[in-house]
Fold these 2 entries.
Entry 1:
Amino acid sequence: MKNKISFITEHSVIKSDNDFFEHISKIKFNDKSFPNSDAIEFVNQFSKSILLDKNARAFPELIVLANFFKRKNLFRNIQSELDKNKEFIQVPLGKIFHIAPSNVDTIFLYSSLIALLCGNICFIRISSNQTTQLDFVIEKLKSTLASYKSMKDKIFVFTYNHDYEITKKISEAVQSRVVWGGDETIKEIRSIPLNPLAREIVFPNRFSFSIIKSKAVYENESNLNSIIKGFYNDTSYFNQQACSSPKLIIWFGSHDDNLKARNIFWNHYNDYVMANNINDDAGMVMDRFVASSFYAANNLASKSNDVDYPTKLNITDLSSKLIREAHPGNGLFLELEKNNIKDVADEIREIDQTMSYIGFTKKEIVNFAMHLTNRGIDRIVPIGHSLDFNAIWDGYDLVEQFSRKVTID
Amino acid sequence: MSLLNNILEQNTPYELEASEKEKKLLKDIKKSLSFHSKNSDTFNNLILNTNVLIDTNKINQLPYVPARLFKLMDLKSIPDENIFKIMTSSGTSGQAVSKIFLDKESSIMQTRVLNHIVGSYIGKKRRKMLIIDSESIIKDRKKFNARAAGILGFSSFGKNHTYLLDSDLNLDVKKLNDTLEDNGNNPILIFGFTFLVWQKFYQSIKKLGKNLNFPKDTLLIHGGGWKRMHESSVDNTQFKAALHEIGVSNVHDYYGMIEQTGSIFVECEKGHLHCSDYSDVIIRDQMTHKPLDFNKEGLLQVISLLPSSYPGNSILTEDIGVILGEDDCDCGRKGKYFTISGRMKQSEVRGCSDTRAL
């Protein structure tokens, strides 16, 4: 039978798909250390190799990832879990099957690397679509693996075209499945059975937005630069397509306040865009035009024929599902005016993930989040931190998810 | 009488000169767009929510709808009970397809306009016709897509149709030989989609290694796009030279889209695609969507008098082209003439998910 799985990492014992399935099912799990010190060394070295390579400058998102996984941060993220453990031993979950999205961004690496740090063995299916960014990451992964022999049997990176049987065979042998992808992919993969004892974590489509108190903008015009820089980073990396990138701004204040603040904010933003090259292209321009036309035809927004970066559209109501589904990122900003933060609560939907803010007190925000009547909102961060990864993501504590507790009385 | 009916009375559909064309075309396109905005809520929303007016003085100020919008929503300006035919674009599986709603009247007009345009190239006499496709594609009415629509639309220009490909899209050499023998020296018409003509017709004949005797004046009309041809690095000049080599002396490409079926742009003897009096084109800058001058490359906006059951009179395509001139092509036809150089490069899909609504 022809082998359908092609390995990206080297595994000399695996010669066929069947060898691989057999290997997965037979793995003995003898290293229960948590977190795993070999993995910590390895991930640290992997991050360093990215940061030390000048070519990484072409991929700012990777630099953010590498900084996240540098040693100091890691201990802060995982050690704290350890300290609490008194009445139980925390151990790795075991074998984890990661399914990366079919586009080639590297966000899926966050969950894979955290799983490794927790001492797990990772099987990572990536898409066969190649980009320079993915090639770069794979090259770093392989070169780091070359000097960490003990990790070779803990990371399997491979690719295969969507195949029910292969996904099923791997899913039956693992303790957890992690799926990044669009809603359709997630639905499809969820229909493939898992080992009854296994867990599943999914990262489907999400929508994110910013809330800005208008007064905070025009009363602090002199200090606006760092906010603008932060908002630019939130929206320019991943061309605004990351699930946590804001696609909408809700302005709070009287209409006059909002008008004043919006003017100041966008002028500063435009200046910043002019000074820093934004990667706008014809495809992005068309996406903005198509989405604007779609919103206008559905009576959801008013627009002009202007397709400049950024393209801004006024909406009057956030409740429609179409508003979120039709947004292509790529430099399109929806804007909505509200008087009071309480006025938005009813328009939050379950798909809403990150709410970034300026000008609100923590108390106001917590109060707001506590009064939502559905599962909407998983992250609340100051503007400029939308893309910061956290070991708690989409409501999952990943360290908890990738480990289990053996209770001892 | 409407401009559309006036043009239908003309000897050829390439007679209006620039000085009168814009004024006449603009008047009737505006009329048509106003009709659509009265009869299609979605189109009316689009106009009202966009800072544009239908009533403009220049053709390049008319509102335009992105071609992709026809894939995202149903745009029609006729009541459901008047729908006579729904045409869809031939997208690959999993991709959204455009849906175009026709009433009987618009369907008839599409055929009449197509006949007028294509007839001006091949003459009134119906020729023996070879179709480079499989007959199965038009039998399944449920899958009535652009390819089937093209074949049916062009079928009326010929008689004794012979489909030359089997159901696996391979050339039936015996059928071709027999047909050529039976036909003798009468001029024939060949029709097919560009990549099928190249891959299945030309390359198969080439492989046979012997000359086939196509009658003198054999004429090939082909269309459907160059994307797959560019993948095999074949351009129009090479394509024509190759077909001349196997004895097909007249080769005409055509450019058209499901959203404006009928008013197609046919390639003249000089190798230029021509606007007919039924249509016009505008080139827009890819980054600003502002209109560009002749000889500048950009996105192609297509304008057609035909669409009367859906708001497709003014569409911004995702094809890249250049307008080379107007009224002064050496072939003698009036109107703008242009070439298409390819598709706009799509934006990159990024971030955490792998699907996108649009």
Note: Chain B touches chain A through 38 residues (CB under 8 Å).
Entry 2:
Amino acid sequence: MPLNDKRPIDIEIKNLSKTFGDVQAVNQLDLTINRGEIFCLVGPNAAGKTTTIRLMLGILKPDSGLISVRGYSIPKEKKKLRKIMGYLPQQRALYDLLTTRENIEFFARAKGVSNKRVVKNTNQLIEKLSLEPHIDKLAYLLSGGTQQRTALAAAMVNEPQIAFLDEPTVGLDPVLRREFWEYFREIAREHGTTILVTTHYLNEAEWADRVGVMRNGRIMAIDTPEKLLEQTGQHNMENMFFELIKGVSA
Amino acid sequence: MRFAYLIAIRLWKQLSRDRRTLGLATVAPLLFVVLFGVAFGGEIDHVPVIVINQDSDAEIVIKFGIITIFEENVSAIGNSIVTALDLSLKVDINQDYTDFETAKEEVVNKRYRCAILIPENFTYNMVSPLGDNISISLYLDNSDPQIAGVVLQAISDAFQDSAGSITVEYAYGDDLRTIDFFGPAIIAFGVFFFAFILVIMNLIGERKTGTLPLLLQCPFDKGQIILGYLFAFSLLSAIQTTVIILFSSLFFGITFGTSLAHYISIYITAIVLGWTGLVLAIFLSSFARSEFQAVQFIPTIILPVILLSGIIIPLDQIPEVIRWVAYLLPTTYGVSLLRAISIEGVLLNIFSFEFLFQIFFFVVFLLGSRISLRET
């Protein structure tokens, strides 16, 4: 999808830093994400991707820097953000003893979706994410992939304006990963949802509108996938990443 | 309140599908009743003892010169003591022994718990103004103080019976059995124990699976999560109380009250006590990262509750140095209230210190858990 530069900025981060003891998890990070954009933060494990998301949600307090999401100053106005956002944590956070449908409906209600829309939204997601055969199964009996699809449905059931998806495709097979990305594109296109996705599958980043390559708490490069490949003279994102870190100390 | 209701419904749905936990929460209080019922309901009796009764009838004649100033024929008090002892059924008497030293050997060999010697002229010496100071000799196996206590009490009672009877009128607890005393305490312990254990384990599980951090990202005040737990566990406490009352009445004949008002008092007290366990669990769950760490809270909290709340050991018997711990436990007041309602027949006074303390404890830890319940 071509990037429309006229779209308003949805997420703006300036000079953001966070340390845990001696570890600099996020280091003077600057980032802007436009409305309706699929932005992928890509990088190896411990690059600072999850910490960045948790800072954006106000779960963690930054040591320094400014975060603005949809005009809300985070963490100060994090409660206002909760009404319009969807969040998929790294863990498959589901209730084992609730069925697929019950899990999705529970999170719909917990996110304040009106009773009228709870069933409608749940049914739509069940269809879109191919969950029909599993709707009455208890969550702990589902396969890893189905659990992840259910968790994604639970995260998106309130039709969020901004979605924070932390490693949504981890542990999934290539077919399901592709399906997830198709779904992200669909909701970004149809509803104008801003989507921030993190992943350590470097090649997945090709499917995003823009990519931020992250390492050691810093963004090393940020651009469209095509331009990043062009700048580094590589044909895939994995090689692009290794080209970028060449000569940069860990 | 919508969010709290949602949480409560979800908890009940999960609990109803977790048969093991549900079974434990309803069957375990029964187990408590049975254990307490058997352990404290059974009285110690038929303790084997040897009695050597050398006493005989006494003919007491005191003369001053040729004038008789005191003349009395008294039946052997030793025989009366033995009969009273026999009738008490607390001890099984063997009177085949004649030598006290041999009888003592038998106690040492653990064949008998006590050897009792009622000496010669016991009656004479007791009754006669000129009698010597003479006493009954006991050789007692005190390796089990409870059994030894029963033997001593039986002898003391028999001695008093043979001398004359004591009339006792009870202010409270007429015909009270030990198990009647423990019944209300089982409700207090069961309700507190399960609210504490189930809530702390549930919350640690929710934190580990990531559902709790996700709930905390929902657009509702986190106080509603605590309220949801309160709703769900109030119902569980009420069910447990019902189970304990029904089972205790049916199998151990324990009466908890004589009117509906008594039962309402019991339910309110039990549910509020359950709340105190619940908020304490929510508060402490924030300080445990795993079930393993949470399990370590159980003896730290539950053991003082069992030992210091007056469930088994009366508060007066707890050394003053640690009695202040008892005064800080909500169960101390819960047990006291439930006993007062069941045994003394009083109704719950919500302005009583005991009840207000529980409310105070609840509010303090409710606020504490509201602060400590965090995503990280």
Note: The first strand of chain A starts at residue 9 and ends at 20.
